[in-house]
Amino acid sequence: MSRNLILGAALSSLVVLAALVSFLWTPFDHAAMNIPDKLRPPGGANLLGTDHFGRDIASMIMVGARTSIAVALVAVGIGMTLGVPLGLTAAARKGSWLDEVIMRGNDLVFAFPSLVIAILITAVFGPGAVNAIIAIGIFNIPVFARITRGAALSLWEREFILAARVAGKGAARISAEHILPNVANLLIVQGTIQFSLGILAEAGLSYVGLGAQPPTPSWGRMLADAQTMVSFAPHMALIPGVAIIVTVLGLNLLGDGLRDWLDPRIRVART
């Protein structure tokens, strides 16, 4: 087992544990304002300090972790649920009009970054975590569709697929029973990468006011609130920034470690 996998799993588990614990306990009420104690530096009862409203930053970081994880997790789930079947279908119908429609649709979505999609969605429905999930999820669909199609195309020429076709199995059954299990490892690794990108996307959307709305804490909005106070309260920006870095780093290391662990060719090459 590689060091990347161990370190990535440890960092990711730490963030997930903080999010889970926040459902049962936080040092203080994350929404409680205490103006006399505002802008306290880290230390004492407020381990990570307080913000400009006197709210405990440690409590906000813990609750913000579950916000970021929930948004990214659901968005990646949307991308996989819709993107993988599209990719399998496109590969099974390679060269057909259906393959062309699916891939050109992917190109169309890729032309609009998740932030632009979020702006379009919020212009109609208003800002919020649900709309952020929809925006990030839509952007994930073509990612998984392309990854699945590319991996599946190389499998359709393999001998065991030809044997399944000779046995009378249809394209849908072959995709479900033979193609999907053989691309699952790749999808798991890509899922961890998209999860980390989802964390970044959620923070970016919240930073510009399109993500989770008050009083729900969000790491991105914490950074936005801190941008005018960096000179005299740097901990307000440093702590959520470190939380984002640790989470994204952990997920990227986890994805890299899973790739090495699940792909025997890479493992053999490195040894």
Detailed description of the structure:
73% of the residues lie in helices and 0% in strands. It has 271 residues and is mostly helical. It has a single domain, classed as MetI-like fold (Orthogonal Bundle). Helix 4 (114-125) packs across helix 5 (129-155), helix 5 runs antiparallel to helix 7 and helix 6 (159-166) crosses helix 7 (171-207). The longest helix has 37 residues, at 171-207. The mean pLDDT is 89. Keywords: Cell membrane, Membrane, Transmembrane, Transmembrane helix, Transport. It is a multi-pass membrane protein. Residues 65-255 form the ABC transmembrane type-1 domain. Belongs to the binding-protein-dependent transport system permease family. One of its GO terms (biological process) is transmembrane transport.
